[in-house]
Amino acid sequence: MEYRFLGKTGTKVSSFALGGSGFGTRTSEAESRLIIDKALDYGINLVDTSNIYGQGESERVIGQAIKHRRGNVLLASKFGAESPEKINQSGGSRRWIRTAVEQSLLRLQTDYIDIYQLHLPLEWMGYEEILLTLNDLVREGKIHHIGTSNHLGGQLVQAQTISDRYHIQRFVSEQTPYSLINRRMEFELAGIAKQYNLSLFVYSPLSGGLLTGKYKPGQPAQSGTRASELKGYMDNLDPELAENEHKFKIIAQLQQLANEAGISLADMATAFTQSHPAVTSTIWGPRTLKQLGAYISGAETRLSTDVLDAIDVIVPPGKRVDDKEQTWTPEWMKPEQRRRHM
């Protein structure tokens, strides 16, 4: 396992991280604990979760699983993506951040969180209150470092500028999707990460299972796969939809390239994320012990320059094949925000 610095903090994180979004829900608690143990034994030291995963169940399962190995684990959790239905129990206010972190600490059975991340941009409020509150929590020792997730480049620059203005803690990491068919990270975030010494934690390297090679265009997804379970809910995964035909043709070209290189498509996809120098860690999100084993078996795969050049021809750098593959839609993209009122 390779270990890389978290920004300029001096803390080292494993080049692969374990994502816990399904622990205790899509994956039973017993199997979740086996997955966590095996990942830590392999050398992973960064475990990522959020207070909304399974309504806190993921944090609880992770906390129970690592409590005897806490000194060797970097815990990352998130806040800010809670349902807004309960007044003052979501978002980024000082009141809620303090409440949210205490709740996460209890579920995780720990005195501190190593990396506490703003899960989504909060467009209705500025970063001042968020950063000042997080700065206080660092000084109190309840969190060690702060980061973001699913942010745009301009938002990260704005946050860094505010931290410099107030001489307070800066975000040291950004968590963003990145895969063979979603290369938007390269267009802007990679440059900003270099400018501000931000670590990039990239998730969904297999694009929700699309890059496993198990889906065939025009054919129904096999029972038990993510695409079959989410049929009608996440249409971007559905191989039967005509609107996805172009994407699956591109995936077929990537599959052919992987075949010629003598590796699986999934291994090529994961290795691709590791080939970019801006990437600090690739987050694995296995739902089963078998899936974790597949990740581990392909972890040492490295791509030659010829293969990387061939990928660039199929999916140009900075391009996202399907614009539906985005975590959130900014308020300013809604019709009422982009049309003049006559």
TrEMBL record:
Keywords: Oxidoreductase. It comes from the Bacteria. InterPro entries: AKR (IPR020471), AKR_Detox_Biosynth (IPR050523), NAD(P)_OxRdtase_dom_sf (IPR036812), NADP_OxRdtase_dom (IPR023210). Residues 17-314 form the NADP-dependent oxidoreductase domain. It holds the Pfam family Aldo_ket_red. Residues 321-342 are annotated as: Disordered. PANTHER family: NAD(P)-LINKED OXIDOREDUCTASE SUPERFAMILY PROTEIN, NADH-SPECIFIC METHYLGLYOXAL REDUCTASE-RELATED. This is Aryl-alcohol dehydrogenase-like predicted oxidoreductase. It comes from Paenibacillus silagei. The lineage of its organism: Bacteria, Bacillati, Bacillota, Bacilli, Bacillales.
